[in-house]
Design goal:
Number of helices: 18
Structural class: alpha/beta
Shape: globular
CATH superfamily of the largest domain: Nitrogenase molybdenum iron protein domain
Helix content: 40-55%
Distance between the termini: 61 Å
CATH architecture of the largest domain: 3-Layer(aba) Sandwich
Strand content: 15-25%
Largest sheet: 7 strands, mixed
Number of strands: 15
Number of domains: 3
CATH topology of the largest domain: Rossmann fold
Length: 420
């Protein structure tokens, strides 16, 4: 057990630290960086995953693809991708190509960095992104993409104080956050990532980094180290309370004092119907997206009983404020899933937030489930995301209420032959 000063204790267990493939991040990042192409070097298994798991995210001609490794390629350390790159140029004309690793070529010790450098031209950079499931949680692949972009962010001169929001959100949420910051008198330097490669924000010693996704600790730490930028330590902008604290803390870093308690109260009233449904409900988080801490804190604020909040990785410094806000909640890092199954069976939660892999078995055993991955794809940040966030939690509960009560005798009568 790890004790964090001034906050809750973290129970450290021994299970795997990830549950999904990092290639999943392509599903939201290619839509955000609109002049990019994501090229995955992988096997038929990778292609099957992209086609099926990401099918629900594709709303237009996708700007990602896979260079397949066949059996004959397994003996070669440096696969030839020139023809693939030329085809991407002709069909998509991207400003940047991200070359993503997958498990098999990483095991083969393919020199991805050297390969990316050899494919780079003066007018088209090819950037290596480690994205296999061997090391990182799947959402951390976004962290790797953002780190690849750091060398292309201009150096902001000293004295040019502005905020750069770190994390991928859709354009609507980005516009709302930009407007909110400017209304508070905060100069906005941009977002990392921006919607175009040639619009990356300038970052320097007077840049305030405001992380808006809880799985980006590495890129924030690197920018603080290499560019001397100043990270914001606050709650993440999820839910009325998190959003208020986020904006008040950010304003304070610009010597601006604001009191947003009335705004917070109005936001809670807006989701009053959802809050009444969540109040007193027992909720259990299994580890998946690394968004669990702020999501559990929102439910805690709403009056739900968070029985356990587990996450694949917890960074005690990066997540310090969320851990403080979860005082009294059982927080587990790298949870043992077999132990969790026993706890779920014994404690009978009203809602389980869990991964795609474990959702159906839980449903088959009669539990109400929410896919945790949905939170990575929906606009749930800041004031404009409050209603969507609340609805994501209450929708499965409302569906269950509308279902007729399960009568086992009627079910058995329907499938068993008549005794007569």
């Amino acid at each position: 057990m790890i004790s964090v000063p001034g906050s809750t204790q973290i129970i450290k267990e021994d299970n795997v630290t990830h549950s999904f493939c990092g290639l999943a991040s392509v599903g939201w990042l290619y839509q955000k960086i609109k002049d990019s192409f994501f090229l995955i070097l992988g096997t038929h298994t990778c292609a099957h995953f992209l086609q099926n798991a990401l099918g629900m995210m594709i709303f237009a001609k996708p700007r990602f693809g896979i260079a397949l490794l066949e059996e004959g390629d397994l003996s070669r350390q440096d696969p030839s991708l020139e023809e693939v790159i030329n085809e991407i140029r002709r069909d998509h004309n991207p400003s940047v190509i991200f070359l993503l690793s997958s498990c098999t070529p990483e095991v083969m010790k393919v020199d991805f960095k050297g390969l990316a450098n050899s494919l780079t031209t003066p007018d088209l950079p090819v950037l290596f992104v480690p994205a296999s499931g061997l090391i990182y949680n799947f959402t951390q692949a976004e962290d790797s993409v953002l780190q690849a972009l750091i060398p292309f962010c201009p150096e902001a001169p000293a004295g040019d104080k502005s905020v750069v929001f770190v994390g991928s959100v859709n354009d609507s949420i980005a516009d709302d956050m930009r407007s909110e910051a400017e209304a508070l008198g905060i100069k906005v330097g941009g977002f990392l990532p921006e919607s175009r490669f040639d619009r990356l924000p300038a970052i320097g010693p007077d840049t305030v980094l405001a992380p808006i996704q809880p799985y980006l600790s590495r890129v924030v730490s690197r920018l603080a180290r290499e560019r001397k930028a100043k990270p914001l330590s606050s709650l993440f902008p999820f839910g009325p309370t998190g959003t208020r604290v986020f904006w008040e803390d950010l304003a304070a870093m610009f010597d601006i004092k604001v009191d947003l308690r009335e705004r917070e109260e109005a936001a809670w009233k807006r989701i009053g119907e959802q809050v009444s449904l969540l109040k007193g409900k027992k909720v259990f988080f299994t580890a998946d997206t690394m968004m669990e801490l702020p999501l559990a804190r929102f439910l805690n604020n709403a009056g739900a009983d968070v029985m356990e909040c587990s996450s694949a990785y917890i960074n005690k410094k990066f997540h310090a404020r969320e851990l403080e806000a979860l005082d009294g909640v059982r927080v587990v890092e790298q949870p043992n899933f077999h132990r969790q199954l026993q706890d779920v069976k014994r404690e009978q939660p009203d809602l389980i937030v869990t991964s795609l892999m474990t959702a159906n078995p839980f449903v088959g055993n009669g539990f109400v489930v929410k896919w945790s991955m949905e939170f990575t794809l929906m606009p749930i940040h800041s004031w404009s995301g409050v209603f969507t966030l609340a609805n994501l939690f209450v929708s499965p509960l409302m569906r269950r209420e509308k279902l007729p009560a399960f009568d086992e005798s009627v079910w058995l009568k329907g499938i068993m032959p008549s005794a007569e």
